[in-house]
Design goal:
single chain; 305 residues; alpha+beta; Alpha-Beta Plaits; five-stranded antiparallel sheet; 12 helices; 5 strands; elongated
Length: 305
């Protein structure tokens, strides 16, 4: 019966990218009710019934429908709940969903275009000491390394010369950074800047005022040789999130790419979230790479036009 509808679709000149079949539709339902129910799926848009055939095996109908816009399989539910109640109708499409590999490659190409990079840039990040794999995992790892390098300021541009101001006041005053953003930059400065420990302490102190500065002054009075890491830990204890490592890990696993969000921005959000998870003990260090890859492969879900 479905094959008959397929033939009818071709004969009627219906675009397969804009057609679908509804199964298990009650035989006594009006065409207008079918169209109204189908239009509850926003991805279909306006729907028109093109043919109805009785399925002798179930005594229900198979309904060939056409919509005004191309159907994106990943946006269509497998079943449709009738507005008037009753059993759900199965939805069959004439176009197939993109495979995970095809979907990933499309997103990768979009990312490369946005970041001004090429696939050769990604390949160059893959180790030459091991066989190169064309798996999504290996490419994701290379993309992460590539973005990591792009996000790290070079010593020539003096990006770490001054941290943005942080006082600890809420709401965050104009011209100041929130604690999360300040903390991210401070940790990056400590890890990446090749200046002395004394200079790192100085840059942290120069960026602080108000309650935040008072905390660091107390740390210095207690231990004049306290490391920059100790300064940051003291501030995090006072102003950081009260969430546990487990809570942060759950939030990390719940991340998903927002509609319209660039893949590069999503990758940065994932990286920041995962860093906080590890810092709070929510994930062992040896599991970071695996968690990073799993999250990117499972949660990258934005659709590009």
């Amino acid at each position: 019966m479905t094959s008959t509808l397929i033939n009818d679709k071709h004969e009627a000149g219906i675009d397969p990218n804009r057609a679908f079949v509804l199964h298990d539709v009650p035989a006594d339902i009006d065409q207008a009710d079918i169209e109204e129910t189908a239009e509850t799926v926003k991805a279909f848009g306006r729907v028109k019934v093109r043919d109805i055939r009785l399925d002798t095996q179930t005594s229900n109908s198979l309904v060939l429908c056409e919509c005004r816009q191309d159907v994106h399989p990943d946006r269509i539910p497998p079943h449709l709940q009738p507005l008037n109640g009753g059993s759900a109708w199965k939805i069959s499409l004439f176009v197939e969903s993109a495979s995970p590999a095809d979907d990933f490659l499309a997103k990768l190409n979009k990312l490369m275009e946005e970041e001004g990079k090429t696939v050769n840039d990604v390949r160059a990040m893959l180790s030459t000491d091991v066989p190169r794999e064309n798996t999504p995992e290996s490419i994701i790892r290379a993309v992460g390394d590539l973005l990591g390098k792009a996000m790290r300021p070079t010593s020539e541009n003096n990006a770490f010369r001054c941290l943005r101001t942080f006082s600890g006041h809420l709401p965050t005053p104009a011209g100041e950074e929130s604690f999360e953003h300040w903390l991210e930059q401070a940790r990056l400065m400590i890890e990446e800047c090749d200046c002395s420990v004394r200079e790192k302490r100085k840059r942290i102190v120069e960026s602080l005022k108000g309650p935040a500065l008072e905390i660091i002054q107390a740390v210095w009075l207690n231990n004049p040789d306290a490391s920059p890491e100790c300064y940051v830990e003291a501030l995090e204890s006072a102003f950081g999130t009260p969430e546990s490592g487990e809570d942060l890990y759950f939030a990390f696993r719940s991340l998903h790419q927002q509609h319209g969000e660039k893949l590069s921005d999503f990758l940065r959000r994932v990286e920041r979230s995962l860093t906080k998870v590890v810092q709070r003990g929510g994930l062992p260090g040896h599991r970071v790479d695996r968690a990073h890859i799993d999250q990117l492969l499972s949660q990258t879900s934005c659709y590009y036009s």
